[in-house]
Amino acid sequence: MLVVLAIIGVAAGAVALGLGNASRGASAESEARRLASRIQLVADDTMVTDRPAAFAADPRGYQFMLWDPRKGVWAAGAGGVFERHQLPRGVTLSTQATARAPVRLGADGAGVAFDARLSSATDSWEVRYDGLNSVASRLHAS
After folding, report:
1. Whole-prediction pTM value?
2. Is residue 115 part of a domain?
3. Which of 11, 91, 135, 141 is most open to solvent, judged by the fewest CB atoms within 10 Å of its CB?
4. 79: DSSP letter
5. pLDDT for the residue 23
């Protein structure tokens, strides 16, 4: 019975959070927090599954890649956190990773550190991945 109540509570919380996001529209903050969370999930997945993964980006979105040892190339991941994420209109992404090969992630410290900036008309946020952790923070105007 307690498990059922816990599941109902989690589901209700998810619905409430989803409704809040739907009413606010696109923001650099929500996208930066989403990116930081997804990077951390993929980095943690590489540690648990021992599957090499990488981050690839362009100004309109990003995705996570998985290493295909048979072909010797990075291939687009499929499903869940590995799916490509298209940024909403008005939010742009810039990073040193946008012009290069995918950036390797790894929760064991094997990941390559990088920064990504998400900007909208109202604010700018930075996502910093240090090879272990991913954190989103607001960039203050100077």
Report:
1. 0.76
2. yes
3. 141
4. S
5. 43
